[in-house]
Amino acid sequence: MKVKTFLLFLSLTTALQGCSQTTLQSSSSVKDSTQASFRASQSQGYGGTFLDSLKQKAPTMQEKAEQQAEDLKRSLSNPYDSKGKLIVDLRQMKDDEWCYPLRGAKVISPYGHRGGRRHSGVDIKTKANDSIRAAFDGIVIMSKPYYGYGNCIILAHENGLQTLYSHNSKNFVKEGDYVVVGQVIALTGRTGRASTEHLHFELRVAGTHYNPNLLFDHTTHQLSKHKLQFTKKGGVKVIN
Fold first, then answer.
1. CB atoms within 10 A of CB 12
2. Rounded distance, CA 154 to CA 27, Å?
3. pTM for the structure as a whole
4. Left if phi > 0, otherwise alpha if psi is -120 to 50, otherwise beta: which for 118?
5. How many CA atoms lie less than 13 Å away from 237 in the CB half-sphere?
6. Beta strands of the chain (E only): which ranges?
7. Collapsing DSSP states into helix, strand and coil, what is residue 145?
8. Which of 202, 209, 231, 234 has the highest CB neighbour number within 10 Å of its CB?
9. Long-range CB contacts (< 8 A, 24+ apart) of 103-111?
């Protein structure tokens, strides 16, 4: 896996721009703490010690990210428990653990049947070449042109969910990359079968698509605070 954990750690503030205020404050604190430590080490005349400490931490961070990636890979084909169920409790997610994928967007085509065909996601729109952001931390399992989807990205997340982002004018990530919540992964476009620049966003579990409204309120752009129970047979139940 092509994990660049050290660089992701230092660029976290940039990756999370446009997400919740809590996220921005958290990432700003990390940056301020790092800068303060560096200034302190310089004033004491041993800047090398600070850099050495970061180098010592980097392998540990990389090992953690690689382990998370392996866990994701194992759960892709069968994220369900022994009873054929997957429980995802969105109520337990903190504000810095999620991000609406397209800031300021409005729905132009909802999930469900459309023109005699089933629409497997929700189409949301702002403007051409707008920033598309990762909804959660995850690993890229697809990043390429894919039939009517055009330029398409699929992320697998540690909670067993998968999110899909398509019709992109440009993809910024490659298969195998580890991404953090709020990271800009693509730009909005009209590649594939699309009549206008927008983001086609899908929620999936083990390849089966579900209504993205289960994840987000597309009017307020807030995370839906409830518990979801997915079944291996394709069912889903909302537990409040």
1. 20
2. 25
3. 0.71
4. beta
5. 8
6. 85-89, 106-109, 112-114, 117-119, 122-125, 131-133, 138-145, 151-156, 162-168, 170-171, 178-179, 184-187, 199-205, 208-210, 216-217, 222-223, 227-231, 236-239
7. strand
8. 202
9. 103/18, 103/130, 103/131, 103/133, 103/221, 104/221, 105/199, 105/218, 105/221, 106/218, 107/218, 108/196, 108/198, 110/213, 111/211, 111/212, 111/213
pLDDT tens-place values along the chain, 240 residues long: 444 443 443 344 444 444 444 433 444 444 454 444 444 444 443 345 555 655 565 667 667 667 666 666 656 678 999 999 999 999 999 999 999 999 999 999 999 877 778 889 999 999 999 999 999 999 999 999 999 999 999 999 999 999 999 999 999 999 999 999 999 999 999 999 999 999 999 999 998 999 999 999 999 999 999 999 999 999 999 987
Residue 206 one-letter amino acid: A
- Report the alpha-carbon distance of residue 228 to residue 215 in Å, rounded: 9
Neighbours of 56 (CB within 10 A): 9
